[in-house]
């Protein structure tokens, strides 16, 4: 959190403390003016900015919290709204040290509220956060009966102001609240912290007595600010007044309308606004920006407010970001990842490591053959596609032999050529399609050519082109003993249909197709690759393989991943979602990119390059700098899933330093691939 945003939170906290002064005195709440001050006083981690007061019962100071201490979170209602999102962010910040969330659900629709809340917590945490939902079962009922036995109705009547008109359901509500504060499931530390609001302060008067009845530890209570009403100053948003709060399930038009009509902290006149600046502590519009947009965006909005910018201009600028932030916080993006079946399969295989693995891995070859639609004799597995490619280079090597490839491309091809003492001849790619130039490759092909390397999609640009037309042209030019290495390790992500493997091998018997389980199956660490070729050529490759080349753990991982088609499709779809999200941003900013069919994207940042790549490095986001391919100003980023590309999106949106398409050395962008630029 920036200093200015922390100051805004502190000012909002002071206002809340002033409004709740009577309740603070009555129940012993300790206002938190600034989280930084509290951190210095207690030596504890800084509290989230929305925490305006604390309360400890039975001790003068709160005890030190461990990672095993629960963070108690309770929520109710029928519809998820901004107040729940604020609670989710606070919970995510509190769980940053690895603590578990202990969820207590009193909502009318548990499934939607709990699932939506969990999604929001993961969004704000940037990762999954462990939690446990308390189920209402026999153990909890017995515990509640014992806890309530320590309370007396006369005290509750005085505390809550109950009279003859109070509904009996008030006792049920109290029972749920006592459980929220005190109940701890087996295996978790008692106490911890409970995230509450000022309306729950009266419950604290009963907690010590109820805790003694069940021999439980009372948690430290952290009081959060409630999300302000969009309509009236000094009030909280209320579900009874829909115009005062944004609900997660509001449609986009409704969210836009509520934001544009929300109360601001503007001054009485334009002159006062210009001279004094706005008051963001009174502005519900800024509260939405601060909650839903990246901190850098909120900081810019706050700076503009303090400098006297008009509220209308501020809302117009941040309308799209607020809507997008709401959807991002409440829509769980697909996540790429290894199949959940791999772990158990590998653990089971680990119990038999005293035995040798299969000598030839024929069962794995059969499983890959079935998935690829070819005969099992046409599959050759190895320790990664790199190893199997090495075998192909080896059997094709001869004195004076040559390898033909496209540049730029995957550096491995040249390394393998040099390893086997083959000359490496490269043809520049087609600058209008960012893929192989069949005419240029054909001109390089001569009687010395032993191997031609084609990657589909192209390993730098992700472009595909016309595969069969390219192969037809090459085989016309290549000598009869030359082979085409067709690298298809990214083919799982291709949306443009290409010929099935069986048809390609039938039509081009001197082509060898390479695949990998590192990409769409997420088994990079297992190193499982394979080649598909006609049987005589596959047999020649297999002859290069040492016995027992595949270890038992890799084989077990590969078999389990092949069986889990749902996980495979989820990873592919997650990449497609990341592609759509990132390319939409690039279009909005006018940044050129190449239409990709792989799980990576090549884009021209122009003079934005230095600023954006600096932000990517600081966030730990890996990327490839285009200078490695003599393309200054360009970068390539993998499209793993939406969370993976978010740092680049944020860096692009925050950057104001450069213009697009100003790289001094870059390919032409006039092809139809760049209609717009286009979104796949």
Can you put this structure into words, describing what you see?
One of its GO terms (molecular function) is transaminase activity. It holds the Pfam family Aminotran_1_2. Keywords: Aminotransferase, Pyridoxal phosphate, Transferase. Residues 655-680 are annotated as: Disordered. Residues 348-635 form the Aminotransferase class I/classII large domain. The protein is an alpha/beta fold and 680 residues long. It folds into four domains: 3-223, 3-Layer(aba) Sandwich (Rossmann fold); 252-329, Tyrosyl-Transfer RNA Synthetase (Orthogonal Bundle), CATH 1.10.240; 357-564, Type I PLP-dependent aspartate aminotransferase-like (Major domain) (Aspartate Aminotransferase, domain 2, 3-Layer(aba) Sandwich), CATH 3.40.640.10; 567-654, Aspartate Aminotransferase, domain 1 (Alpha-Beta Complex). It is 43% helix and 12% strand. The protein is built from 26 helices and 18 strands. Strands 1-2-7-6-3-4-5 form a seven-stranded mixed β-sheet, sandwiched between helices. The chain has a seven-stranded mixed β-sheet with strand order 8-14-13-12-11-9-10, with helices on both faces. Helix 4 links the parallel strand 3 (71-77) and strand 4. The longest helix has 25 residues, at 565-589. The chain is elongated. The two termini are 36 Å apart. The model is unreliable at 35-44 and 661-680 (pLDDT under 50).
């Amino acid at each position: 959190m920036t200093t200015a945003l922390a100051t805004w939170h502190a000012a909002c906290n002071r206002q809340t403390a002033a409004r709740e002064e009577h309740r603070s005195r009555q129940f012993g709440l300790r206002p938190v003016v600034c989280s930084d001050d509290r951190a210095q006083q207690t030596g504890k981690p800084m509290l989230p900015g929305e925490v305006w007061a604390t309360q400890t019962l039975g001790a003068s100071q709160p005890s030190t919290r461990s990672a095993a201490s629960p963070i108690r979170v309770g929520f109710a209602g029928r519809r998820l709204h901004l107040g729940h999102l604020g609670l989710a962010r606070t919970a995510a910040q509190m769980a940053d040290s690895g603590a578990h969330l202990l969820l207590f659900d009193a909502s009318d629709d548990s499934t939607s509220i709990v699932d939506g809340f969990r999604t929001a917590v993961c969004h704000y945490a940037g990762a999954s956060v462990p939690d446990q939902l308390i189920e209402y079962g026999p153990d909890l009922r017995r515990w509640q009966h014992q806890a309530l036995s320590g309370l007396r109705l006369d005290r509750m009547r005085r505390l809550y102001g109950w009279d003859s008109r109070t509904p009996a359901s008030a006792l049920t509500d109290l029972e749920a609240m006592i459980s929220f504060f005190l109940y701890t499931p087996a295996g978790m530390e008692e106490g911890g912290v409970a995230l509450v609001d000022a309306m729950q302060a009266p419950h604290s008067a009963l907690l010590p007595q109820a805790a003694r009845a069940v021999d439980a530890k009372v948690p430290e209570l952290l009081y959060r600010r409630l999300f302000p009403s969009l309509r009236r100053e000094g009030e909280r948003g209320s579900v009874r007044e829909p115009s005062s709060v944004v609900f997660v399930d509001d449609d986009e038009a409704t969210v836009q309308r509520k934001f544009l009509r929300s109360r601001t902290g503007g001054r009485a006149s334009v002159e006062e606004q210009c001279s004094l600046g706005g008051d963001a502590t009174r502005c519900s519009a800024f509260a939405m920006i601060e909650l839903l947009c990246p901190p850098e965006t909120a900081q810019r909005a706050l700076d503009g407010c303090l400098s006297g910018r008009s509220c209308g201009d501020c809302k117009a600028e941040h309308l799209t970001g607020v809507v997008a932030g709401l959807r991002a916080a409440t829509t769980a993006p697909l996540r790429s990842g290894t199949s959940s079946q791999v772990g158990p399969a590998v653990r089971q295989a680990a119990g038999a490591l005293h035995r040798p693995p299969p000598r030839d891995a024929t069962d794995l070859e059969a499983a890959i053959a079935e998935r690829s639609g070819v005969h099992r004799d046409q599959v050759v597995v190895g320790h990664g596609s790199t190893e199997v490619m090495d075998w192909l280079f080896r059997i094709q090597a001869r004195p004076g032999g040559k390898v033909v490839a496209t540049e730029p491309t995957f550096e491995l091809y040249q390394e393998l050529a040099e390893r086997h003492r083959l000359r490496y001849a490269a043809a520049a790619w087609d600058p209008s399609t960012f893929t192989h130039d069949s005419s240029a490759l054909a001109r390089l092909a001569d009687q010395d050519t032993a191997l031609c390397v084609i990657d589909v999609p192209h390993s730098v640009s992700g472009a595909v082109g016309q595969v069969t037309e390219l192969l037809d042209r090459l085989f016309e030019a290549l000598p009869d003993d030359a082979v085409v290495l067709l690298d298809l390790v990214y083919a799982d992500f291709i949306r443009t249909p290409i010929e099935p493997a069986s048809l390609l091998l039938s039509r081009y018997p001197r082509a060898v197709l390479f695949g990998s389980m590192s990409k769409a199956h997420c088994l990079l660490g297992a190193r499982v690759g394979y080649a598909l070729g006609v049987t005589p050529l596959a047999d020649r490759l297999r002859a290069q393989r040492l016995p027992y080349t595949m270890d038992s753990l890799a084989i077990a991982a590969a078999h389990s991943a092949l069986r889990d088609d749902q996980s495979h499709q989820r990873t592919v779809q997650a990449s497609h979602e990341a592609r759509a999200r990132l390319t939409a941003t690039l279009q909005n900013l006018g940044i050129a990119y190449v239409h990709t069919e792989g799980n990576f994207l090549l884009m021209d940042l122009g003079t934005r390059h230095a600023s954006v790549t600096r932000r990517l490095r600081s966030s730990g986001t890996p990327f490839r700098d285009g200078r490695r391919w003599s393309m200054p100003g360009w970068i390539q980023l993998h499209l793993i899933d939406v969370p993976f590309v978010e740092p680049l999106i944020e860096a692009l949106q925050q950057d104001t330093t450069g213009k697009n398409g100003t790289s001094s050395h870059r390919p032409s962008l006039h092809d139809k691939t760049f209609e717009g630029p286009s979104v796949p």
